[in-house]
Fold this protein.
Amino acid sequence: WGGFPGAVLEALASGLPVLASDLPGVLEIAERTRGVTPLSLDRSDQEWAAAAEDILETRIETLLEPGNPFDVAVSAEKMTAIWEGSGKTWRD
């Protein structure tokens, strides 16, 4: 849907943790995967700085584990199923 934070998913796929404002798309991703720290813009600068320091050393190969609904393989399988179920091919 419009406004979905693709940059958050790109960071997670690269193994980078994310500190972001608590927008609906960010909260949706945070509910389904690890590595996302959503904070309200009402929080103080000190709270934002502390949260950034907490995740500063976090980096692993990927924070999107296999089977995660945002994993590219899962997305590709779902899109394939949609197109196969429609009876259309990519040429239609």
